[in-house]
Amino acid sequence: MRPISLRMSAFGPFAGTEFIDFSQLGRNPLFLLNGPTGAGKTTILDAMCFALYGKSTGDEREAAQMRCDLADESLLTEVVFEFELGQQRYRIRRVPDQERLKKSGDGVTKQKPEAQLSKIADDGSETLLVPAKVSEANTEIEALTGLDADQFRQVMVLPQGKFRQLLMADSKEREKIFSQLFQTHIYRKIEDSLKSQAASIRNAAAEQKNIREGILQSADLSQEQDLQEELATLDEALNTASNDKAQSDKAYDEASKQFEVAKLLSADFEQQTSLKASLALLTKQKPSIDKQQLNYDQAKAARAIEKFDTDYRVRFNEAKQASLAQTQSETELSQAKQSLDDAERLFKQVPEKEAQLNVAQEQLRSLQSFKPLLEELNKFNGLHKAEQQKLDLQAEQGKALKQQLSDTTEQKAKLLQQQSELRQQADTQAAKQKILGVAEQSVEQGKQLAALNKQLAESQQAMEQSAEQGKRLREQHQHVEQFANQTEFNWHQGQAAIMAKRLNQGDACPVCGSQEHPHLAASDGELPSEADVKHARESEQQAKDKLVEARQQYLVLKAQLSEWEGQQQNIHQQMASKASLSLPALIAELEQAQQALAIAQQAHKKVDELQQQIEQTTHAEQALQNKVELAKDTYRNIKEQMGVYQAQQERAEQNLPEQYREPQLLEQAIEQQSAKTESLKQNIITVNQAYNAAREALSAKQSGAAAAKQSLKLAQQTLGEAKTTFSEQLAGSCFDNEGAFNIALNSLSDEEFSELEALLLSFNQNLTKTTVLFEQVKAKLKGKKQQNVEALKQALVGHLTLRNQHDVQWNKLNSRQQTLQDIQQKLLNADKNAESLQAKYNVVGTLADVANGQTGNKISLQRFVLSVLLDDVLLQASQRLQLMSKGRYQLIRKEQRAKGNKASGLELEVEDSYTSKVRSVATLSGGESFMAALAMALGLSDVVQAYAGGIKLDTLFIDEGFGSLDQESLDLAIRTLIDLQSSGRMVGVISHVAEMKEQITSRIDVLKQSGGSTTHIVMP
Predict the structure, then answer these.
(1) Which pairing describes strands 908-912 and 917-920: parallel, antiparallel, or unpaired?
(2) What homologous superfamily is domain 1-156+953-1020 in, according to CATH?
(3) Own/partner pairs for 770-774, CB < 8 Å, 24+ apart?
(4) Which residues on adjacent β-strands are paired with residue 34?
(5) Which of 51-65, 435-449, 989-1003 has the lowest mean pLDDT?
């Protein structure tokens, strides 16, 4: 991460808006943040850390405490930080929780915290990643940088007084930092995965054991030996039961076979008797059936030639209808010829009717052309009359206006005379009035001075009361604020105590994630609720609002007092310039001039009133003059328009006949001519339609007559053919003549014929079937005798009872054997599964123990990987530490296992070449600790960037610590920083050491002023 620019507004000691362009310092600068104590050097680092994470570098101030007290109330506290990650640029803006002025109205309102994060493209365009939500911005920044706020402070910023934190961190804390920096979460996932798999296998093995016990319990067995003993006993009993079952099955089958044979034989004898009786009954019915068969045969033969007789009768009727149709068509043809002759006579008169129609249409058009002429004539008559009326009215108005103008002019002359006389009277009192004015002014100033003195005294008292009230309100606000802070602190402490009560040993802390809880939070008193906290904060806000209102009222009273003091001074100066006249003399002059002043005021008042009347009269005179001129113009225009209308009226009368100048007469003539024209037109259409219809009707009747003649010829021919065919069919039948045929045809109805046909068919089929079956049964029973079926049935029942008893016994023993054999197989499968799980656990469980640090030195897989990376970091750090400590110190990793269950493998020690001993880093002095922490930070930066996928640590800020070094160590530290800069890093240093300012020429000066600090970039 490399800073590009930083803008701070009302932040920390910066009352205004400060913009720092880091790009002016160069691509990889080594620069100094220079300034006096309290100027705001560390605030610049706080601003960058706050912009990224919403926290300061020291994490000692809340966001709401970062507002500058000297800032203007209208300026919002905010930080905008633009930075570079790799090849990508980002900009983040963050606004803390604060009070600001309302956008409309008076007073203040609560500004909620905001954070906007944007990605900046090469062309300068921005893509908004986070619009406003603070939590989303924090998550996104941590994802981009790979660091949270604590890790950022430990590896990229060495805060004032906290540079030892990374150096003194234990294994667990250093594991958290290094895993984030080197992205070794995959190893942690492997640990968790192996641990989860091992636990799953253990659970499966325990479940398998429970399943095995459940299998034995399902068969009422306590152990596997009981299963084997019962299976051996069952084998012998099952063999005996199988033999008994087989013998009883064989005896039952034989008895069942004999019973079935006897039952079938008995049924055959019964069927033979029944068939014999049925056959005798059918033979008795045979003569009657033969007679019915004869009637059926004759009716069937008649029905066979019935269609030819029907066809003959149909053809006869068709020939008759065709003859009638021919006669009718000849009659209609004669009538059509007569109609055509009548229509033709009328059709020849059509040309004469059309000539009459043309004449009538021409006359109608002529009459219709008179309508616009008549309308125009009426229009001009009306316009002429209207204009004549306007002309008469305008003449009367002109006379009246001239009289008004004469009266107004005379009144104006009288008013001017009165005004002149009053002005002469008013001028005689001018001198006296001037003296009166001076006296009145002096008296008035005296009264004003007395009133101002009284107001000044009252305002001074009000200011003192306002100041006293402000003091009381300030004390009250401080008291309420302290109570609100204490209430909120107690609430937070209570929440921690509640959370601690629910936390068990071994559970991960929801705050820090630790599984060890040496000092649990506790609370003995009654805990405030969240509503109590809210109520306390509301009371604080109300007290603050009252305090702000009192301050504003004090400022208003102060400004008012200042204004009145200025007025008092002005009056004193004016009265001093008139000191030559005493107040009693002025009062005497005032009394003498009172009467003259009243007369002059009255005269001037009348002059003003007359002047207003004169002005009004002048305006009225001018308005009347304008109206007179306008009336003359209007009169001339109306007269000219009347001449135009008169000429147009005369032209219209010349073109319109006199008999049609009345609209009613013209409309009546047009209606009569229109009716005549329409009658002629309709008559012509009717004649043409009738003539065409008669021609079409004649053509149709001629075609119909020809068709009827042809149809008659065909019908007579078809009738002869049908008669011949029927005669031939009758001659070839069993009937002697047509009479016999008709008798046979009508002897049976269709329903009777169908019923008789079905009866004969059923009788013949039944007779044939009964005869065949009787012969078959008779042949089958030849030489056989009936058996005792009931005795055989009783014997079969006895065998069935015995067989069922043997089946029940065998099924019971066989079912038990199958159950025990299934259990035996399930136990074998359970044993195989248990062996497989144990083999699998031997591998996975061992790997899980090793990966999670449960064996040996208690070092997990991730911590082992991190220990290798830490060795690389310490190798780089020791090279710099040896240089800065003149070859005395180097950092090494502590390999001994920690006591108890404490995590180990990532602790640090220092090797002292002067004493040839290894000791804890906690034994280093302040200056030595600073050098070790600096070397550690630089070595960490080198190694993180060397690993693929590592986080880019190309910036380092160091806040103080150089003052604890001697001159030689200081020179070595500066040389180390210069080497770091040459390797492509940005290094910013905060220090009061004079040698630092001399050797680091690029710097950002922070200037401390009474109105707030400012910044200035200084380049060599």
Answers:
(1) antiparallel
(2) P-loop containing nucleotide triphosphate hydrolases (3.40.50.300)
(3) 770/275, 770/278, 770/279, 770/282, 771/279, 773/271, 773/275, 774/272, 774/275, 774/276, 774/279
(4) 1005
(5) 435-449
